[in-house]
Amino acid sequence: MIESTGGQGCGSVRVLWDDALTSYDFGPGHPLAPVRVELTMALARDLGVLDRVEVAGCAPASDDEIALVHRRDYIEAVKAVSKTGRPDLGCGLGTADNPAFIGVHEASALITGASIEAARSVWAGESAHAVNVAGGLHHAMAGMASGFCVYNDPAVAIAWLLSQGAERVAYVDVDVHHGDGVQAAFYDDPRVLTISLHESPRTLFPGTGFPGETGADGSAVNVALPAGCGDAGWLRAFHAVVPPLLREFGPEILVTQHGCDSHALDPLANLMLSLDGQRTAYAALHRLAHETAGGRWVVTGGGGYELVQVVPRAWTHLIAEASGHPVEPSTPTPASWRTLVTERTGEVPPLSMTDGRHPAYSDFRDGYDPADAIDRAIVATRKAVFPLHGLDPLP
Predict the structure, then answer these.
(1) Among 3, 87, 107, 154, which residue's beta carbon has the most beta carbons within 10 A?
(2) What is the pTM of this model?
């Protein structure tokens, strides 16, 4: 069942998709399996979510567009690997995280092109929101592949917006891993506010994202949450940090990365969110896009390595939320999709669109507990950056 949000007007919503986006494939056994986006789009289609959006194609990003973030010599190195499939450890391709494969440049450029097109369609006013679930490759650095990411599509999309005259772009990253590549791209650029909520770098790759990483006058914001943090603590931290900063910054456009590897079932990380907690976060970001950025919202996917139970359901909820017609959590998954899951993966598919949780949190403004690890993380972030934005770090 799809519910209308009533007064939450969204205008047109564009979902960028091409079956070739699944060609970003590091091979059998790699955690970033393209079946996750295939199953997402199939679930969204079978539930009727795609009937309420415009599904549009995309073209590969040009070298000039990719070079808005990445070094030219790096692009040429990736293209060389793409032709032969031979590793080049100098550019980070050929490692366990980032295996070399024939076509890696073309696959990466297409994902980047989809995120640029999402940004362009929103910036041009052709759509209020635009979604690229295949995107969100936030670890890639200017001259190095990293963390399953070759070209940093959200950073390129943001750089493209700046090249078109945008003066204030906010980026919120809810992946369980620190959005280090996007932060690095704009660390000294006060036009871009990057906010990342992630598992503490003390326990998880990439080992960055401490509260003291504040960029140009507080333009980088990091909330480093303790392993084991669940829905209530995560949502408490989100609401204690993200809405006040977005309201103060006043972005012209909001770009968000929605890695769903914060889920309790994810095999690569240690946070304990439920699908319902993640869905609640999507709704909060949707509201903030309307409240702080005039409704201009560019949405990407990201990490997520529980390929059947989590990613397809999470990102179907994400697309549905962006459309203004959220899927009611108790909705059964369609039989046609469950059959596809079994055929493609051999796994037992989930039966409904919920984990059966009802996320709630206590507001940080009502007081905090210095003995609580989540509250300490919140206070560390607020003390590091809130005064730089003219905000009170304490409740």
Answers:
(1) 154
(2) 0.97
